[in-house]
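To assess whether the prediction recovers the assembly geometry, we first specified each molecular entity separately, as shown.
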Amino acid sequence: MSWFRITLHRSAIGLPERTRGVLMALGLRRRSQTVFHPVEPQFAGMIMKVKELVLVEEVDKPKTQAELREERRPEPGFYLEKAVPRHDEAALFSSRTRGSVLAAVQAMESEEVRL
Amino acid sequence: MFGMFRITNPLSGGLLWKSPWRMSKFQKLRQRRRLRAVDSVVAILDAALAKQGETLKALERWKEEMPTEAEMLPKDKYTMFDRNAKRYRKSVHKLPKWTRVSQRLNPPGY
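The predicted structure of the complete assembly is given in tokenized form:
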């Protein structure tokens, strides 16, 4: 059984009472709130009524509130970027040619270390 | 005529809201994105229901009648019919709540 993952993307402020009623019936109260409903014509019809306001995906199983929260958690840890040696920096700014600047930028990017 | 007490529309009439008569290229870009977003929602609904062998009258009707973003003419994406406007067309951003309603079809011939 598959499910619709429905996220309210646009607010229904100022829209007709019927539209807001459909959102209430879907269980969407605030923007970026996500609900899951089974793939059935009834729910498809409700989504059809508010298709301009929601983002929809088809998923295999619904997620709990805790799993949704976990999804939004940023990745732990941090990126360590090595400082570019001073003489290289001077070379980068003194050289006017585009190719050498690009090469230097690529070198800096490759030094980026993931911890 | 000039200076602090010149007669301008906001001074003589109070509140005046102006909106440009045509959309900027950025408004048009966002409008296209919104049209495509609605298209994708409809496509997802259709695919999900088709997998289960179900269908929906509203969905069938939408697919039958409504052009997708790629099928629409620029004229229909950015302007809409208005019987009072010059040459019967006004920019679609004059439509109330225009970013949250679907306005794709216009009377044939206009």
